[in-house]
Amino acid sequence: MTQEKVFQMKLQTVYPLLVAKAEKKGRTRAEVDQVTCWLTGYSREKLASLVESQITYGDFFRNAPAPNPHRKEITGSVCGVRVETMDDPRMQEIRYLDKLVDELAKGKALEKVLRK
């Protein structure tokens, strides 16, 4: 899948997949919402409204009100690519969220996922 295709996907299509991944491993939607809000700066209410809207996944990250400065501490591989070395900043933001949800699904404590 090309990067541009990922950017054009609807958040309302992608976000439930992230939630399902976490729930399959015993985590909750509230935890996925919490890490998403931590990463992007959206409030829970705004996130909920965006998930119901027609916003694209790329625009969701492009319009993030307050990207967390600690997101740069997120390291590791997603789909065989190291998130800290990605060239495209928007794709890197998408992979940061993937990595956070992966860490949740693997049972990592929420405090560690949020780099506290």
UniProtKB/TrEMBL annotation:
Q: Identify the InterPro entries for this entry.
A: SP1917_dom_sf, UCP033199
What protein does this entry describe? Answer: DUF2200 domain-containing protein
Q: What species is this protein from?
A: Candidatus Acutalibacter pullicola
